[in-house]
Amino acid sequence: MASRSRIAFVACASLTLAAWALFAAASGQTQAVDAEGHPWWQHAVFYEIYPRSFADSNHDGIGDLNGIRARLDYLRWLGVDAVWLTPTFPSPQVDFGYDVSDYRNVNPEYGTLADMDRLIADARKKNIRVILDFVMNHTSDQHPWFLESSSSRANPKRNWYVWRDSVKGNQPPNNWVSLFGGPAWKFDPRTNQWYYHFFYPQQPDLNWRNPAVEQAMFDVTRWWYRRGVAGFRLDAVDTLFEDPDLRDNPLVDHQRNAYGDPVEREIYDRNLPEVHSVLQRLRRVADQSNAVLIGETWTQNVAGLKAYYGAHGNELQMPMDFLFTMVNQLSAPEFRRQIAAVDAAGGWPVYVMSNHDIPRVYDRYGDGKHNDQIAKLIAALYLTLRGTPILYYGEEIGMENRDPQRREDVKDPIGKLGWPQEKGRDGERTPMQWDAGPNAGFSPATPWLPVGPRFAAYNVAVEQKDPGSILNFYRRLLALRHTDPALLEGRYVPLNDNDASVLAYLRSYKGRNVVVLLNMTAAARTVHLDLAAKSVQARAASPLLVSSANSKANGAADFALEPFGVYIGELR
Ligand code: GLC
Ligand code: CA
After folding, report:
1. What is the pLDDT at residue 8?
2. Whose CA is nearest to atom 7 of ligand 1?
3. Which residue did the predictor score with more confidence, 435 or 11?
4. pLDDT for 280-316, tens place per residue?
5. Which of 163, 227, 497, 525 lies 20 to 30 A from 75 at CA?
6. What's the gap in Å between 97 CA and the centre of ligand 1?
7. Active site residues
8. Which of 85-89, 199-203, 326-330, 410-414 is predicted with the least confidence, judged by mean pLDDT?
9. DSSP 8-state class, residue 469
10. How far is the CA of 235 from the centre of ligand 1 (A)?
C-alpha cells in the first residue's frame, strides 16, 4: 500500500525515517505503519457516502458510482482519506440497498462492476480508499439463496436461514418483534413454517450457526478484497445470532413503540456472545488482505463497545462509537463523560456524529439562531479528538434534515408504518448540495428525494468561495488534524472538569500541547485553565484555528469565547 504524504510529514517533522516499521501480514503483503505504529486508518478521515444521494451522472435522479468518481477531487480537496459507500449491490431496494440480492455485483441503478473497478482505481490514485458495506445479518428475500431455501423443507439451503414451526396451533415461534415493526417472523404457507427477520420481512436473517453460510459470506469479502476494496463497514453486527431456544424476550411494562408493538428487553435476539467468534474469524480473513473492518456496533455503554475490539485487538479495528449520537443536546458535561469513557477503554476510538439512520447535526444541536456556529463547534469536537472520525456526507456544508411532511411522500418504509411518530430516515438522506442551480446540482432530473430546504445558501460552490463558511472551517480543521503531531498522536487530557459550559481539553504529544476550547452555550464565556493541575507549563497560546477573532487568548491560561465559540491553539 502506498505510503501517505501526511505520514511522511510527521515522520520528517519529529522522527527519523529509520524508525519506520513495516510488518508482513500472513499473506506476505506488506502494510506501512508510521513510526508510532499506526496503520493508515488510524490517521485517516473517513467519509460516508449514501450513493443514491451523492451525485447523479446519467440524469435519472438517482446518484451513482460515476457520479461519485466525478467528485473525487472535491473529496481530496476537503481532506478525505477513505470513503465508505452504503450498499451498492443489486437489491430490490426495499431498505435502499440493505436488502442484497447479489453480493458480487453492482445495482444497475448505480452502474456496473467495471464502474466500481474504475472508482476504486481512480480513488486510489488520489490516495482515497474505498470501503464497502457488508450486510451480514440478512439477505433480500429475492436472493437466490433465499429463493432456494424457501422452495422446500428438503432444499440443501433450507438451513441457511432461520426456519421454525408454529406454536400453539398457528402462532409464531415466540414473541420477538422486528426492529422495523410487526412480528419478527413471517409465515410461509408453501412450506408451512415461519422464517425469522430482525428487520423487514423482505430481509430474512441468515443462519450464522451454519458453517456453510459463514464460508459463503467470508468468500464474498475475499472476492471484493481482490478487486481492491480496503475494507468493510459491517452492518448490524449485533443481530447475527439469536437464542437457540428462542426464549421470549421480557416485556418493558406496558409500553408500545411507534409501530404499536410491545417494547421488549432484547436479551435473546441481540448481542449474543457468538457474534464475537464470527467477527474474530472474519478479521483473520481481512488480515490476509490488510483490510480494515468497521463495525456498526450499537452498544449501551463503553463496556459493550470494548468487547468488539477483541481481547488482543483481534476483532474489529474500528468499532464505531455511537454514544455521541445519543447525546441530543449540547452539553459539555455529557460529552466530557462520553469522551473520557471511550478514551479510557484502551482501543482506538472511532467517532460518529450522524449517519444515514440518524438526524443530522444541524437538527440535533441547532438552536435556530446559531446553527452555523454550532455546526462548526461540533466539527471542532469530533475532529480534534484522539481517534478516527467518520464524517457523514453533507455535514461539512451544514446540510439539515428535510423530513417528509405527508405520509404519501415517505420513501423509507418505517416512515410509512410509524407515521406520524416515526417519519423514517428520508430526512437525513437528501441529495448532496453541490451548487445553487436546479436540484442543488445533484441532477438535472427530479431527484428521488427532494433537496434540502436551504440549498441555495448551503452548497459546495457557494461555501468554497466564502472563507467563513462551514465548509472552509471543515477543510482547515482537516488540514490541521492531518499535519499537527499533537492532534495526530497526542494524549487526550481533560481540563476544567467541572465547567458546565465549556468543554476544554489538551492533545498532548512530546511536549507539544494543543488546547481545544468549545463553548457549548449561547452566552459569551471567559475561561481560566487550571494548567498546573495537569503539570503543564506555558506562557502563551497561539491560535491554530478559531471560530472568529472574538474567541481569543490572553496569556496561556485565560481565554474569551464568543457564543458557541471555538478556540484551538498551541500552548507555549
Ligand atoms: C443498519 C443500516 C440501516 C439498515 C439496517 C438493516 O442499521 O445502517 O440503514 O436499515 O441495518 O440492514
Ligand atoms: Ca443516476
Report:
1. 29
2. 236
3. 435
4. 999 999 999 999 999 999 998 999 999 999 999 999 9
5. 227
6. 9
7. 235, 296
8. 326-330
9. S
10. 6
DSSP state of 400: -
Work out which ligand 1 atom sits closest to the CA atom of 138: 12
Q: Is the minimum distance from the CB of 134 to ligand 1 under 6 angstroms?
A: no
Show the cell assigned to 150: 424457501
Q: How far is CA 34 from CA 24, 27, 58, 140, in A?
A: 14, 20, 41, 41
Instruction: Assess whether pLDDT exceeds 70 at residue 7.
Output: no
| pLDDT over threshold 50, residue 2 | no
> What is the pLDDT at residue 32?
67
Selection from 388, 393, 394 nearest residue 292 by Cα: 388
User: d(Cα 500, Cα 352) in Å, to the nearest integer?
Assistant: 23
CB of 95 shorter than 6 A to ligand 1: yes
Q: Using a 6 Å cutoff on CB, does residue 135 contact ligand 1?
A: yes
- Residue 178 CA to ligand 1 center (angstroms) comes to 13
| Residue 122 in contact with ligand 1 by CB distance below 6 A | no
How would you list the strands of the sheet with 129-135, edge to edge?
318-319, 292-295, 231-235, 129-135, 82-85, 46-49, 388-392, 350-352
Answer whether 206 contacts ligand 1 (Cβ < 6 A). Answer: no
